Amino acid sequence: MPADYEDPLGPEPDAEYPTVDAARYRSVLGHFATGVTVITAIDPDGDEPVGLAANSFTSVSLDPPLVAFCAAYSSSTWPRIERARKFCVNILGESQEELCRVMATKGADKFGGVGWTASINGSPVLDGALAWVDCTIDAEHDAGDHVIVVGRVHDLGLEEEGRPLLFFRGGYGRFDA
Q1: Distance (Å, rounded) from C-alpha 25 to C-alpha 56?
Q2: Which of 2, 23, 32, 91 yields a CA-CA distance of 20 to 30 A from 69?
Q3: Is the pLDDT at 1 greater than 70, yes or no?
Q4: What are phi and psi for residue 35, nearest 5 degrees?
Q5: Any alpha helices (H) in 30-171, and if so which ranges?
Q6: Residues 86, 82, 57, CA angle at the centre, nearest 5°?
Q7: Taking every pair of C-alpha atoms in the chain, what is the biggest distance, in angstroms?
Q8: Backbone angles phi, psi at 25, to 5 degrees
Q9: How far is CA 47 from CA 52, 79, 135, 159, in A?
Q10: What pLDDT digit, counting tens, does each position of 72-113 carry?
Q11: Helix segments in the chain, DSSP class H
């Protein structure tokens, strides 16, 4: 091929790219507002509720009904949810910032004083959540320092009318309509 040939599909997969600085990455992507969820399950080893905060939740497919979230491999809660093979996504309302902070804290008593009822799969549906989505783990995909968890939806519901808790630029916010 001629020396000045440019591949219309772009550079080779092993091409050199600049290193992306972690602080800049967080700053730029922090400008994308997300909703806030708590992923809950019952740990099959301890028969106790577990939960983790996640803002990386999304719907994936209508047929079959699938959703996804990302969990850090460094999470001490993720392995407990993974062993359960089922989980509930709780979509938080604007008044649940403190609950989110507790669920995001390693070693915290995450369910101390937190009311919940069991979903059809037995996972905690948190009191005050705007909505919930009850799932079983359908697939897991390695993604750097996180795992992408795809859940098959078995049941879901709306619990509260209200506004969502949002995460934007490193902090929590509210939605003003």
Answers
A1: 15
A2: 23
A3: no
A4: -75, 170
A5: 78-84, 97-103
A6: 70
A7: 70
A8: -55, -50
A9: 16, 14, 18, 25
A10: 999 999 999 999 999 999 999 999 999 999 999 998 899 999
A11: 22-29, 78-84, 97-103
Given a contact cutoff of 8 angstroms between Cβ atoms, the answer to whether 55 and 38 are in contact is no
Do 38 and 103 contact (CB within 8 A), yes or no? yes
pLDDT digits (tens, 9 = 90+) for 36-54: 999 999 999 988 999 999 9
Structure tokens at 86: 């089922």
Q: Which structure tokens are listed for 25?
A: 């990455």
Residue 93 is classified by DSSP as B
d(CA 19, CA 154): 41
- Size of the chain in residues: 177
Q: How does DSSP classify residue 105?
A: S
Contacts by residues 144-149 (CB-CB < 8 Å, ≥ 24 positions apart): 145/72, 145/73, 145/74, 146/56, 146/70, 146/71, 146/72, 146/73, 147/70, 147/71, 147/73, 147/78, 148/68, 148/69, 148/70, 149/68, 149/69, 149/70, 149/71, 149/82, 149/87
- Domains, the chain, with CATH or none: 36-161 (2.30.110.10)
CB 176 within 8 A of CB 164: no
- For residue 28, count other CB atoms closer than 10 A to its CB: 11
Q: What is the pTM of this model?
A: 0.86
